[in-house]
Amino acid sequence: MNWRERRVAQILRDFMEAYGLSAEVGARLRAGDLDFARVNRLVGESEESALFRLKEECHALFRFDKESSESELQAEELFDLAVGALFHEAMKFREGYYLTTSYGPRLASMMSEERAAGPLAEAFLRVIEAGRQRMLESEVEMAELFDETRDQLAILLRQLPGSGAVARSLLEDPERTCEVFGSELQDLLESIYSDVAAGYQLAVGDLIENGHYAEATELMEREDTREADIDDGEALRFAGAMERYFAGESEAALETLSQWVKDGAPGSDHWRLTTARVLEAMTENESDVVLAEHARGLLDELRKIPSD
């Protein structure tokens, strides 16, 4: 996985987190139980804020992107601008919320106790009321901007080459993805990858490529993945063998790998290279002499299989 794929995948995750937080902030504001800590998780001037991280990631990647095509650059630039606008609108909400909830009650208390009165108190009241109104307007504007920015993000994703890292981000939490993009997961994957199964295969391949064998197995065994009807038999077998090996189940791993090698070691060259390294380690470090000899023989057989 190259660095650009990782950055885009992180941007996608941060956007989905920020989108969900924004919806929660709006709902709690209307319910009257919003707190500043939750607002700060959405927007602030530090890495603790989802929108701050999103803004910084977008600026770092898209403003200096030299790898994309002209159409991709246009989609990226518009998304970057939209994220910047989102951040500033959310900061207006944050400031209005803080003014309303921190200064408003204190002034109301002072006035009720007749410790504040006259032109200054009246002017302060007008400032607080104006801040409250700006806060309410910013919340509405922020919600609309999030939807419009989400639509632009979908356009950007459709223009990118198929990325396993991005597919993983979309499939990590299907319910969240559906809520953010406002569509069924299968419809979203088809719009981005032109084929639902392709999205799942990219995600599975990326997990295996990066050594996340248990997560790959879990994804392949999910109901939505089975419904996508992807060709994952060999991937499931290979990931299972690697998962067993790293769990310390050498004999079970060798049993699966033996059949896999016998079948011609189907899959990518990366799978074969990984298997060769595992078998070499077992040959050198396995305390069970029989298993070590089995691994050595299997390694010899694997090396006889021509690369794709």
Question: In terms of topology, how is this protein built?
Answer:
Blueprint: H1 3-31, H2 36-42, H3 50-62, H4 70-112, H5 118-159, H6 164-172, H7 174-181, H8 185-193, H9 196-209, H10 213-220, H11 223-228, H12 233-246, H13 250-262, H14 269-285, H15 289-304
Helix pairs in contact: 1-2, 1-3, 1-5, 1-6, 2-4, 3-4, 4-5, 6-9, 8-9, 9-10, 10-12, 12-13, 13-15, 14-15
User: What share of residues is helical?
Assistant: over 70%
How many structural domains can be distinguished in the coordinates?
3
The largest pleated sheet is described as: none
> Within the CATH hierarchy, at the fold level, what is the topology of the largest domain?
Four Helix Bundle (Hemerythrin (Met), subunit A)
Helix and strand sequence? HHHHHHHHHHHHHHH
Radius of gyration: 27 Å
Unreliably modeled segments:
none
CATH architecture of the largest domain: Up-down Bundle
Total beta strands: 0
Task: Give the number of helices.
Answer: 15
- Shape field: elongated
Broad structural category: mainly alpha
Task: Identify the CATH class of the largest domain.
Answer: Mainly Alpha
Give the amount of beta strand, in percent: under 5%
Query: Termini separation (Å)?
Result: 20 Å
Residue-averaged pLDDT, rounded? 87
